[in-house]
Each structure stands twice: as structure tokens, then as C-alpha cells.
């Protein structure tokens, strides 16, 4: 995958970054969840996440107000109800003229006009009489008969004289500084195709077309479930051994930026029964209250108190260790019919899991959020990477086009994450890279 445009479309989800061997994978079926023994490839895990949430592509269509539609994907083609511009108008503050009036001007040069009534933007002008030039403001409707505009600074005198006075204007071709009806967007044309992510320009276009709502799929409902006995809520005092819950807000913000309004819950305990009760509560919710997907964070590795693993035991959920760092330990499946994606607890692991596993799948399935821009850039420094794993380093793209690493590879380095604006991908099979070696960079 090379070039700045690469990876922005759905087709790129599965075919880049050959990571992980995927070889020799076998799964142990215990009473409940399955644990994959060997490292699973990133593509394989993405494909499984895609299969888990693919049914959500059929969410019902609805019309959302523009503000709420930001970040969502269009549910059907958007057809322009009006022309843009809706009428021929001036591109400059100047004088509307009939270009034929310049015929016969000496040497194709200037000639004198009688100044007509001024035309402000928003007014409907009277037709322009031959030999007249009407002061016209930018965006104002061209008067009937006029077909060109001379900017005021080219007039002699270079200002707007009183109506009835004379002004000398240099010769112009028909069409000069006239913005024609429908020349930007023609009424009836499909201006945005179904599946287009609604960013600021698309929202601006919809507003410019006079639309107050757009057709989208019902927004995905995601509940973020932070787990861990060590978690403390922001605003409380940290007891010894505690840390503040970063993951809940980190993922909430990541989803919000991606056009998804998520809900947060926390089970500040390592008691699997407590977590199970919370999952049962979420699975039992009905209608709009019921999440489409729950993302858990924490409790999925090999410790003695892996609450998420234990709570999901007996359900159709599998756990695997991916050939990726950070974001190695992962889980996914359903809990009483509720799709669950289990991310590891380290904050950077959560972020990378979102960026590398879930976000590209949403982009592929739903068209929004847009895929991250990817490019190749030379490293500003040498690096080493563990064998057999895609290593995802936090990085910054410098003004000189080189990519520099921010912080080390550790998945607890939240400060470095916040100082980064890119991810540098070191593919598996690569254990050392020199200064100047090219890596794939995702701009976050
Ligand atoms: N023996 C092994 N130990 C670990 C392995 C392994 O393969 N073998 N994998 C390591 C990797 S890699 C990761 S990543 C972590 C994943 O651990 P868990 O998903 O079980 O997460 P926790 O143990 O609950 O937490 C890990 C770390 O993250 C902190 N944390 C958790 N939740 C939050 C939160 N909401 N906000 C901020 N920080 C959070 C937690 O305190 C821990 O420090 O396992 C390794 N271990
Ligand atoms: O895979 Mo863990 O996410 O290194 O830190």
C-alpha cells in the first residue's frame, strides 16, 4: 500500500500489511470460550470482527439532522434538489455589462458606459439596457442582458459612481467573472453516493443545497465497558494501587470522532460475576437502549484474575493472541446474542485495537468512518521490532516528510500516545530498520 490515497477505501481492509503467519493455528475448546494457542494474523481477526458486526450493515434507513449526521455514512444517494449556483451571479464586485457593447471599441480597448442601478446580493435586478453598466456586488444576480463583469478596480474611476454618471470600462469577453447557474452542482444530479462518509465538506454541501436532514443508516450503538478492580473514576482520589480509567474516555472520544456516539459503563472489580451481571443487563436492554456492540477493555490476558475471560466463559466467545504489539490479546463473540469485542486493558493497546482492528472494519462495512490516510515515509531514526509481529509505533510525521517515533513500544505510554499524530507500521518479519528505511504510516 503506497501513496497518500491508499487505504482510504473498503478494498484495502484485508489486503495490506501481511501480518502474522496465521499458520499452525489451532483452537482449544473448553466448556465455554475458545483460546487460540498461536498468534493470529491481524487480517484474520479483522475478518472475524467483520463477520460479527456485518448484520449491522442492514440497519434501517432514517433521516438525521445535519448536525447529527456528521461522521455517519449516507444511507442512499443524495440528489441535488436545486442548482448550485441557483442563478447566474457575479464573482466580483464590479460592473455588469453586455459584452457586445465593446464591439467596435477602439483597438478592442475601453469604452464609456452609463452607470445603471446598483445590484446588491439578494436583489432581483432590472434588465440591463444597452450601453449601460450596472454596479454589481459579489454573489448578486446578473441582470437580464448582461453576460460579463468588470471588477471595480479596473474601472475608471475605480469606484462606483452615482446612477446616471459615466464610467470607462476595459473590454471583456462574454462569461468573464460570471458564475453560471448549475455550474457547480446541477439540480437532479447525484452529488454524494450512498456510503459516503459525511465530513465537514459533505455536510456543508448538504446545507448549501438547502437540506436540513440527510438519509443515513441508524447510527450504531456501542457501549464501552471498562473493567478492572484497579480502576478509579476521574475526579475521585486515587487509593494505593488504583489508576484512573483512561480507556473509557479514550474509546468514547475515538468513536465520537468517528461519528459514533458511545455510552460508557464500568465494572470496577475483577469479580467475573459482577461483570457477567453487567453484560446480562446490557443484553437484556430493549429497543434504543440496547447496544449493537459492547467493547470491553481489560481482563483478557493470562493473569490470575482475568474477569472478562471468566465472565464470558460458557458463551460463544473466543480469545486469541494476535501477531501484533500493542493489542496482542483479543476476544470476540456473543454474550446472550449481544456482540462483544474484547480489547486488552492497556490504554495504548485499546487505541491500537480500535485503529487497526475495528475502525477499518467499520469503514469497510459501513463507509464511515473514513479509513485513515496511509503513506510511506522514511524513518527519522533506527528501530528494532519483535519478530513475528506487526509492531505499531506511535509516531509523528515531520514537516520534512520523515516519520519520528514518539516514546517506546510500551502499551501503557499514554503520554506519548497523546503526543503522536501517526502510527508507524513495522511488519512482522522485520526486526530492525535503519534511519531512512521506509515504513507505512497511518495519519491519525
Ligand atoms: N503472562 C502474560 N502477561 C501478559 C501478557 C501475556 O501474553 N502473558 N500479555 C500482556 C499484554 S500484551 C497486554 S496488552 C496485557 C493485557 O492485559 P488485560 O487485557 O488482561 O488487561 P488488564 O490486565 O486488565 O490491564 C492491563 C493494564 O492496563 C491497565 N488498564 C486496564 N484498564 C484500564 C483502563 N480502563 N484505563 C487505564 N488503564 C487500564 C491495567 O491497570 C494494567 O496496567 O497483558 C499483558 N500481560
Ligand atoms: O499487546 Mo499488549 O497490547 O503489548 O501491550
Highlighted features:
binds molybdate ion, Molybdopterin biosynthesis moea protein, domain 2, binds ligand LQZAQKY5, 29 strands, 28% strand, Molybdopterin biosynthesis moeA protein, domain 3, six-stranded mixed sheet, 444 residues, elongated
Spell out the blueprint of helices and strands.
Layout: E1 27-29, E2 34-40, H1 42-53, E3 61-65, H2 66-69, E4 78-79, E5 89-90, E6 94-97, E7 111-115, E8 132-136, E9 148-151, E10 166-169, E11 178-179, E12 190-192, H3 200-208, E13 213-217, E14 222-227, E15 231-232, E16 243-244, H4 247-257, E17 262-267, H5 272-284, E18 293-297, H6 307-312, E19 316-322, E20 324-325, E21 329-335, E22 338-343, H7 347-366, E23 373-378, E24 383-384, E25 390-397, E26 403-405, H8 414-418, E27 422-426, E28 432-433, E29 438-443
Parallel strand pairs: 2-19, 7-8, 14-17, 14-18, 15-16, 18-22, 20-25
Antiparallel strand pairs: 1-2, 3-13, 4-12, 5-11, 6-8, 6-9, 7-10, 19-21, 21-22, 23-29, 24-28, 25-26, 25-27, 27-29
Helix pairs in contact: 1-7, 4-7
The structure holds ligand LQZAQKY5 and molybdate ion.
Molybdate ion (MOO) binds next to loops.
Amino acid at each position: 500500500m503506497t501513496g497518500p490515497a491508499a487505504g482510504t477505501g473498503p478494498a484495502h481492509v484485508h489486503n495490506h500489511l501481511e501480518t502474522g503467519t496465521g499458520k499452525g493455528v489451532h483452537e482449544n475448546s473448553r466448556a465455554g470460550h475458545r483460546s487460540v494457542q498461536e498468534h493470529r494474523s491481524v487480517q484474520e481477526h479483522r475478518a472475524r470482527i467483520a463477520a460479527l458486526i456485518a448484520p449491522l450493515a442492514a440497519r434501517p434507513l432514517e433521516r438525521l439532522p445535519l448536525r447529527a449526521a456528521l461522521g455517519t455514512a449516507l444511507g442512499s444517494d443524495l440528489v441535488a434538489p436545486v442548482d448550485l449556483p441557483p442563478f447566474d451571479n457575479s464573482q466580483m464586485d464590479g460592473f455588469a455589462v453586455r459584452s457586445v457593447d465593446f464591439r467596435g471599441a477602439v483597438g478592442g480597448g475601453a469604452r464609456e458606459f452609463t452607470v445603471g442601478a446598483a445590484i446588491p446580493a439578494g436583489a432581483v435586478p432590472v434588465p440591463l439596457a444597452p450601453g449601460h453598466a450596472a454596479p454589481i456586488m459579489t454573489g448578486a444576480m446578473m441582470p437580464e442582458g448582461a453576460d460579463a463583469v468588470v471588477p471595480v478596480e479596473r474601472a475608471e474611476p475605480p469606484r462606483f459612481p452615482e446612477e446616471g454618471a459615466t464610467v470607462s470600462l476595459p473590454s471583456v469577453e462574454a462569461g468573464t467573472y460570471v458564475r453560471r447557474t448549475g455550474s457547480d452542482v446541477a439540480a437532479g444530479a447525484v452529488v454524494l453516493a450512498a456510503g459516503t462518509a459525511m465530513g465537514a465538506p459533505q455536510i456543508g454541501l448538504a446545507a448549501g443545497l438547502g437540506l436540513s436532514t440527510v438519509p443515513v443508516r441508524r447510527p450504531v450503538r456501542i457501549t464501552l465497558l471498562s473493567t478492572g478492580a484497579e480502576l478509579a473514576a476521574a475526579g475521585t482520589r486515587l487509593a494505593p494501587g488504583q489508576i484512573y480509567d483512561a480507556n473509557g474516555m479514550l474509546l468514547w472520544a475515538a468513536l465520537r470522532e468517528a461519528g459514533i456516539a458511545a455510552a460508557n459503563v464500568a465494572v470496577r472489580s475483577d469479580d467475573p460475576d459482577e461483570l457477567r451481571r453487567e453484560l446480562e443487563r446490557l443484553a437484556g436492554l430493549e429497543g434504543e437502549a440496547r447496544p449493537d456492540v459492547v467493547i470491553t477493555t481489560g481482563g483478557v490476558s493470562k493473569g490470575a484474575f482475568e474477569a472478562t475471560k471468566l465472565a464470558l466463559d460458557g458463551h460463544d466467545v473466543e480469545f486469541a493472541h494476535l501477531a501484533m504489539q500493542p493489542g496482542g490479546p483479543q476476544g470476540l463473540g456473543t454474550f446472550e446474542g449481544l456482540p462483544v469485542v474484547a480489547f486488552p486493558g492497556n490504554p495504548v493497546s485499546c487505541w491500537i485495537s480500535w485503529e487497526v482492528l475495528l475502525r477499518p472494519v467499520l469503514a469497510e462495512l459501513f463507509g464511515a468512518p473514513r479509513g485513515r490516510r496511509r503513506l510511506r515515509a522514511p524513518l527519522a531514526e533506527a528501530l528494532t521490532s519483535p519478530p513475528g509481529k506487526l509492531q505499531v509505533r506511535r509516531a509523528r510525521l515531520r514537516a520534512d516528510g520523515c516519520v519520528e517515533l514518539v516514546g517506546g513500544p510500551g502499551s501503557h505510554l499514554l503520554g506519548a500516545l497523546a503526543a503522536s499524530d501517526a502510527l508507524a507500521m513495522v511488519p512482522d518479519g522485520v526486526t530492525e530498520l535503519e534511519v531512512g528505511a521506509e515504513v507505512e504510516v497511518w495519519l491519525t
